[in-house]
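Summary of Year 1 activities. Much of the first year was spent building the evaluation harness for sequence design. The harness presents a backbone, in tokenized form, and records the residue chosen at every position. We chose the following record to illustrate the format because it has been used consistently in internal testing since the harness was completed.
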């Protein structure tokens, strides 16, 4: 194998002596998945194997670099945050992502039970979030990890910009009640308990098997169930529609599906994630 545009020069994929780390998701992961986590002890090198649900998903940084807020999401102080120094685009295929974000201490400071590190990987086009926690190991067994293709190596994480001034207010939504009106329609009553009006932009509906409907053009969709702005302390009536069939009663071409088609079925729970114009996400669980 040869390097592109360099005839005769053998191309060698980057390799690392790395420790494999167990990991677990911390919150719902939106439009992306992590398959493996490796770190190089004594360095900041963190190797992830990830995949996105949509082509050319743009991941821009780690945890709150743009003032991104996840309601109810406590963050560990050992987490690195900031913006990637190069563009990172991930497709619907396993991709090696190497980032300088390993926060494992030296092995003599790691307890026998391990040391956990939070990683919040954030994307914006379409919205994609990977919130997971990996465990640094007291006893290491290094393995040679050769990056497969595609792979992306981020050389630097830039510190996050200054957060917006407090005067901009904050968003908060509480679900007061909900009702299923059909196998494809759900009405949710959300009270704005924040300090600014809230405009809704998109939503995601996931069943217990991980199948998911996405409506990313919700705010600009001139058709069925257009959301409205909700004033402070007011209750907004939000109609969530699934299904790619004719609209109404289904969502039609405004929705896209990942996985197997599903309906709202009695006795089953569903996770509703709503994204606002400020790129905040609010997640609710409903049971029919």
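For this record, the design step produced the sequence shown next.
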């Amino acid at each position: 194998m040869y390097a592109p545009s360099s005839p005769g020069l053998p191309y060698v994929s980057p390799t690392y002596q790395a420790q494999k780390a167990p990991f677990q998701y911390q919150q719902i992961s939106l439009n992306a998945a992590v398959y493996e986590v490796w770190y190089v002890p004594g360095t900041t090198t963190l190797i992830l194997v990830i995949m996105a649900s949509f082509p050319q998903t743009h991941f821009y940084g780690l945890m709150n670099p743009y003032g991104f807020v996840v309601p109810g999401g406590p963050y560990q102080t050992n987490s690195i945050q900031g913006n990637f120094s190069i563009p990172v685009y991930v497709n619907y295929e396993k991709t090696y992502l190497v980032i300088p974000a390993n926060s494992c201490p030296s092995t003599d400071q790691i307890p026998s039970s391990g040391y956990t590190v939070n990683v919040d990987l954030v994307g914006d086009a379409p919205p994609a979030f990977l919130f997971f926690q990996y465990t640094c190991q007291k006893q290491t067994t290094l393995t040679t990890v050769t990056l497969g293709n595609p792979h992306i190596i981020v050389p630097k994480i830039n510190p996050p910009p200054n957060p917006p001034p407090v005067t901009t207010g904050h968003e908060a939504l509480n679900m007061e009640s909900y009702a299923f009106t059909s196998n494809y329609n759900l009405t949710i009553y959300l009270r704005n308990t924040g300090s600014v009006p809230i405009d809704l932009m998109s939503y995601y509906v996931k069943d217990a098997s991980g199948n998911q409907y996405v409506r990313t053009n919700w705010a600009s969709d001139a058709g069925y169930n257009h959301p409205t702005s909700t004033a402070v302390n007011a209750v907004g009536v939000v109609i969530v529609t699934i299904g790619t069939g004719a609209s109404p009663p289904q969502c039609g071409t405004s929705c896209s599906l990942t996985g197997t088609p599903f309906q709202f079925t009695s006795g089953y729970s569903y996770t509703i994630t709503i994204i606002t114009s400020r790129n905040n996400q609010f997640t609710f669980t409903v049971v029919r």
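The chain has no helices and 20 strands. Quantitative recovery figures across the full test set are reported in Table 2.
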